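A student in our group prepared the protein record below, which I am reviewing. What it holds is a sequence and that sequence's fold in C-alpha cell form. My question to you is simply how this chain folds and whether the C-alpha cells agree. Do not assume that whoever made the record got everything right. I have pasted the whole thing underneath without changing anything:
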Amino acid sequence: MLKIYNTLARDKQAFVPIAPGRVSMYVCGMTVYDFCHLGHARVMVVFDMVARWLRASGYALTYVRNITDIDDKIIRRAQENGETIRQLTDRFIAAMNEDAGALGVLRPDAEPRATEYVPQMLDMIGTLEKNGYAYVADSHDVCYSVRRFDGYGKLSGKSLEDLRAGERVDVMTGKQDPLDFVLWKHARDDEPAEVKWESPWGTGRPGWHIECSAMGSQLLGKHFDIHGGGQDLQFPHHENEIAQSEGAMDVNAHCQFVNYWMHNGFVRVDDEKMSKSLGNFFTIREVLKKYDPEVVRFFILRAHYRSPLNYSDQHLDDAKQALTRLYTALKGVGGDAPVDWGEAHAQRFKEALDDDFGTPEAMAVLFDLATAANRGDTVLAAQLKALGGVLGLLQRDPQLFLQAAPAGGLSNEEIDAKVGARATAKKAKNFAESDRIRDELKAAGIVLEDGPQGTTWRRA
C-alpha cells in the first residue's frame, strides 16, 4: 500500500483516497513574471513523478497545477517593460511550458490561471465575510481574521503566540491583528486597469492566498486528496489556504480541506540556499545550456523529494555519468515492453515508490538491472527500460543519448570524420596516427569502442 509523508500529520500515512480508485491532486505552480529556476524545476519534476506513479498504480488521477498571473511582481515587471500584464504572462507561460517539456514533465490535467477565477474568489470572500472570518480594514482591503479560526497553525506547527512574535508577518495599518492577511486588495491609482475588478468591497484585485483556495475547490471540490508544493509554501501560503477554505465551509460541520499535504525540499547551491541575493540563482534555461535535460531530471529524482537538493556542476556531472551507465546497458534494446510487475526487481521498485515515493531506492533497482543487462540479460534490459519509463527516464534511443552533443563540444559529424580518419590510418598501419586520433578524441570526452563490425563511439 502507498504511504505518503503527510505534513499535516508529521508522519507517513497509508494513502486512502476519498473516492476509491480516484485521486485529486492540486499543486501550487509558478508566478509567471520571469523564467523558471531550479526550484521550479524541482516542483514540476517531483509532482510529475508523483502523478506518474499514482497512474502506474492504477488510480484515475485529476492533476491541477495553477498559474499565478496576477501579483505585485507581475504588475511591476510589466510596467518596467512597457507591456501589458497579459503580454508578460503569456510570454513566460510559454517559456515555462518549454522548460517543463524539455524536462519530460507531462502537462497537468488543468492549468488554471488566477485571472480566470476571480468570480469564484469573490464568492469565497463573501462567504468568509458571512461566516465571520473576513472584515474590511481601515485601508479598504478585505482581510482574514486569523484569531477567529481555531485551527490556524496546524499545518506549520506554529502557535499563534509564536507567530505573533513577528515571524514573516508584515504589520499593516488598520488590521485587527498583525497576522491577518489580505483577501482582496483595494485598487491603487497607479495600477493598470487590467488588474482591477469590481467587487462588493470596491474596485481591486485578489490577494495571493485566496487564488489557490478558490481554484482548488472549484476544480477538485471542497475536499480533495493531495495538495503539494515547495517547502517554502508551507507557511504562510498553505496555512492560509486551510484557514480560508475551511472557514468558507459549513460552520456547523467539521470539514477538512485536504487529506494529505506534500512538500518538496529546498534546492541548495554548493550547500547554500539558492537565492538571488547570494548570486547563486540559476534558471532552468541556463542549466540546460550546459546539461542534457534528462540529466537534470535524473539529478532531481535521484534525491528523495523531501530532502534538500544540492546543486553543483560536480553533482550534475555525476548524474550525467550515472545516466550514461544506464543508457549504455540499453544498447541494442529495441521496442517498448510493458513492466513485468511480478518480477523481483519490479517488486522492489514498487516497494520503494510506495514508501513515500522513495526514488533513491528505486534508482538503485535500475542500476541492479543495468548490471544484469550488461551481462547480456535481454529480458532484464527490457525491464530496465520499462521501469525507467515509469519515472520519465530512459525512453530515448540509447545511441542518440550517448552521442548527444553538449554545448561547445565536438559535433557528431566532426567525431565521425575523426573516427573515419583513424580507421584509414589503421588500415595503412599508421598506428601512431591512429593512436593520436584516439587520444585526441579521449581528451575531448569521446570514448571509442572497437568491435567486429567496426568502431562505435559515445560521449563520456
